[in-house]
Specification:
Layout (H helix, E strand, L loop, with lengths): L13 H35 L32 H38 L1 E3 L8 H10 L5 E5 L13 E7 L5 E3 L4 E7 L6
Parallel strand pairs: 2-5
Antiparallel strand pairs: 1-4, 3-5
């Protein structure tokens, strides 16, 4: 069995210095080699699993290594594929909503036009009637568009309608007309004769 020299021997003796040098060298070599092996292994592992955003896609394969929500950009436009898909879906939804709104507006306009066309009345005979009574008859049918003219063309206004009588009318009596038709009545004062 090998026996190490006793520490009681002089530390300056050549034999003690040799042993200490060998022990220190072995220890340093062992520490140095194990540190080198661990460093090289760690750097290889770190290179294999480097993933800054922790999205499971290695940085060297990740188009957006600092954005966990995106990892690819197939079209190369600088916007991630998930965001591209969201933008596309949003644009499609907006286009569908706009088309639906236009179709609804068109259908409502057609319905309103049909309803308006359906609202009509048969023009009553108003010639010979009191102007006030003629107005009341039209309003009872839902017609409020009215032009009153002085049948003698004297430019007079019918201030008190009950004092006038109807001489002529447009449209003619018996004709079916839309509710928004403007009716024209030519009138003279009750004591006057129609032209």
């Amino acid at each position: 069995m090998y026996r190490f020299p006793s520490l009681s021997t002089s530390p300056t003796s050549p034999r003690t210095r040799r042993y200490l040098t060998v022990i220190v060298a072995v220890l340093m070599l062992g520490i140095s080699c194990s540190a080198c092996g661990e460093d090289s292994g760690d750097s290889e592992v770190a290179a294999e699993v480097k993933d800054q955003d922790s999205d499971g896609v290695p940085d060297d394969e990740d188009a957006f290594p600092r954005d966990a929500s995106e990892s690819s950009d197939v079209d190369g436009n600088g916007v991630g594929d998930k965001e591209d898909a969201r933008i596309k879906a949003e644009a499609e939804a907006k286009a569908i909503a706009e088309a639906d709104a236009k179709a609804t507006a068109k259908a409502e306009a057609e319905e309103a036009a049909e309803a308006k066309a359906a609202e009509s009345f048969k023009m009553p005979k108003l010639a010979g009637e009191n102007l006030q009574l003629a107005q009341d008859m039209l309003q009872a049918l839902g017609s409020y568009g009215l032009i009153q003219n002085d049948a003698l063309e004297l430019g007079r206004f019918q201030v008190l309608d009950a004092n006038w009588k109807v001489c002529a009318q447009k449209p003619k009596a018996g004709k079916k007309v839309p509710i928004d038709t403007i009716v024209e009545l030519d009138a003279v004062k009750l004591e006057e004769s129609c032209p």
